Amino acid sequence: MAETDNKVRKFWFWLSIGINLGFLAVFKYFNFFADSFAESVSHLGYHVNPWVLTIILPVGISFYTFHGLSYVIDIYKKRIPAERNFVDYSLFVSFFPLLVAGPIERATHLLPQIKKKREFDYANAIDGLRQILWGLFKKVVIADQCANYANLIFNNSENYSGSTLLLGALFFTFQIYGDFSGYSDIALGTARLFGVDLLKNFNFPYFSRDIAEFWRRWHISLSSWFKDYLYIPLGGSKGGTLVKVRNTFIIFLVSGFWHGANWTFIAWGFLNALYIMPSIVFNKNRVNMDIVAHGKRYPTLKEVLSISLTFFLTVIAWIFFRSPSIHSAFEYLVKIFSSSLFTLPKFVGISSALGVLFVTMCFFIIEWIGREQNYAIEKIGLSWSRPLRWSAYYILVFAILYSSGGEQQFIYFQF
């Protein structure tokens, strides 16, 4: 009887996994595989007109697919009991603050909060509004403004010098952080208004001292999801160095493919896997576990150099993430490291771009000051007088309203 029950459990488990991944494969990856197949056979002399789907990608499909997968896996592993209330389950999968760009929640963390009675907490709501304000500033003032110049430079890269292309890569690096972490702050703050605490998704990743630390601080919910549901089931770190290397490459390649249906995302994942290999091979991936310069105002020279190197490697990887093809990414990189790298950047609107860059640098100074908090302005200014503190909030609001007149951009349109 027990053996029969186990077979039934396995049947429903793999059926659920297949259905979840099937939706993701059809909506997000079908056209990619069809086009890739047609391109591959064209190199053999055959011409194929692939049949593709002309459908709209459902918003947030990657996120609620992973929500559903974690729920099914946790039930199968008997970490949680099956949810009998369809409304509670539906709310867990489609909880609107995190639907578009995460964080990726676990049933063990979110479902108990959904099921219990929640009461309005004024202090918690105020903290949530403060985090929403900072998230909006990241999204509208930093990400959207940097996106204007990142798009200009990347879309016309053949016309610019190496120094201008490097500036474009920097703008995209700031854009993607402000975009994604800004949305996460908005999601966490909004959920807190409803008495729900979501998982922290970003922890000041551009202050990381090595790539392993960067991936503990960037998109934390996704990294931990792959660790718990892919890396550990594959054997984790228990099978020796070769197994660790294999499993690390698998999770980074899958992570890249999860971000979008393009070979550039896979190349981005592969490059990050290469970055992290030395720390995996020499067992140095857990050296920098604490926040940089903890309890201090300034970092040491060694920390500055480590942060700079990690940031530089990250910028190079983001070029593959942003480029339309692997070929164009390599062309972009080759031109950056040409002799023209040492000329001054020149393009239409350079003065405005430098203004945006200055605001971005000021933003990161605030991030540095508040790096030991859950978000940068969580505690900054709370000891100030009420008029001074509210003046700072109004400056943020004014900057958001002033910057919101342009085109709103969202890099994670493929999710």
Descriptive account of the structure:
The protein contains 14 helices and no strands. The chain is mainly alpha-helical and 415 residues long. Helix 6 packs across helix 11 and helix 10 packs antiparallel against helix 11. The protein starts with a helix and ends in a 12-residue tail after the last helix. It is globular and about 70 Å long.
**Cα gyration radius (Å):** 23 Å
Number of strands: 0
> pLDDT under 50 segments (min length 5)?
none
Major β-sheet, in short?
Answer: none
% residues in beta strands: under 5%
Distance between the termini: 43 Å
Number of helices: 14
- Assembly state here? single chain
Name the overall outline: globular
Q: Structural class given helices, strands, pairing?
A: mainly alpha
Q: Average pLDDT value?
A: 87
Q: Share of helix among residues? A: 55-70%
The run of helices and strands is HHHHHHHHHHHHHH
